[in-house]
Design brief:
- The protein is of the alpha/beta class and about 250 residues long.
- It has two domains: about 1-35 and about 80-120 and about 170-253, TPP-binding domain (Rossmann fold, 3-Layer(aba) Sandwich); about 35-80 and about 125-165, 2-Layer Sandwich (SIR2/SIRT2 'Small Domain'), CATH 3.30.1600.10.
- The chain has helices at about 1-20, 55-60, 65-70, 85-95, 110-115, 140-145, 175-185, 205-210, 240-250; strands at about 20-25, 100-105, 120, 125-130, 135-140, 160-165, 190-195, 215-220, 235.
- It has a six-stranded parallel sheet with strand order 3-2-1-7-8-9, sandwiched between helices. Strands 5-4-6 form a three-stranded antiparallel sheet.
- The longest helix is centred in the N-terminal third of the chain and has 17 residues, at about 1-20.
Length: about 250
């Protein structure tokens, strides 16, 4: 098993070294080792929260319900720290082996680990926006409101309800981020999918675009994904083990 892991990590690095323009697409599996649950896994968010917690209609119907769960459960995720996967992706970018990280995650752990070019397809939990006038607020403001037991943070200017700057179900993805991701995918000759099942669209469309333009897809994920059939390489290893081996090899060079 150790030799298989080493060989896979070496192959992975060879793909990056031979590519002129590569990017990484990350999903929830990258952040679960940091203690942030995915949605549908055995310890996922939907095991402890309502299935419609991130439904935009339900949010406007009862924002107090959302913010109670936000205060009692979701805010605890902010204490999470980047893990070896986040750190190694930042290192690979620093070494010029990847050009960008396109993420479906909303935790900003990529940025905290040192990644510079991060495209957030689903937004970020570190900022909020007034649903009435569009004024932006930082997370510190909202957290202070919630700690005072006022369960509906409101805009200081117009009184509108504040909403996390994340894409709820029923909302469109941010057009600017999506267009930038499409452009990256078209120009890349290597797409690296890490910790994602590649079944959620339009994110899963990005590796397809790269392959359609002559690039290679490498998948690093435990279990099957929706695009295994078009992958140049599929590595079925636990992510922290895989990237620890990548670190060992890079350290030896």
């Amino acid at each position: 098993m150790k030799e298989e892991l080493k060989k896979a990590a070496e192959e992975f690095l060879e793909v990056l070294k031979s590519a002129k323009n590569s990017y990484v697409l990350t999903g929830a599996g990258v952040s679960t080792p940091s203690g942030i649950p995915d949605f549908r896994g055995k310890n996922g968010i939907y095991k402890t929260m309502p299935l419609d917690i991130f439904d935009i209609d339900k949010f406007f119907e009862d924002p107090e319900r959302y913010y109670k769960l936000h205060r009692d459960r979701i805010l605890s995720f902010k204490s999470a720290e980047p893990n070896i996967v986040h750190k190694m992706l930042a290192e690979l970018e620093k070494k010029g082996l990847i050009k960008a990280v396109v993420t479906q995650n909303i935790d900003e752990l990529h940025q905290n680990a040192g990644s510079k070019n991060v495209i957030e397809l689903h937004g970020s939990m570190d900022s909020y926006v007034c649903t009435k006038c569009g004024r932006a607020y930082d997370s510190e403001y909202v957290e202070k409101v919630l700690m005072k037991k006022d369960l509906i943070p409101r805009c200081e200017e117009c009184g509108g309800i504040l909403k996390p700057s994340v894409v709820f179900f029923g909302e469109a993805l941010p057009e600017k981020a999506l267009m930038k991701a499409y452009s990256i995918a078209e120009e890349a000759d290597a797409s690296i999918a890490v910790g994602t099942s590649l079944v959620v669209y339009p994110a899963a469309l990005l590796p397809k675009i790269t392959v359609e333009h002559g690039g290679k897809l490498v998948v690093i994920n435990m279990g099957k994904t929706g695009l295994d059939n078009i992958a140049y390489r599929k590595y079925n290893f636990e992510l922290t083990e895989f990237f620890r081996e990548v670190k060992n090899i890079l350290g030896a060079v």
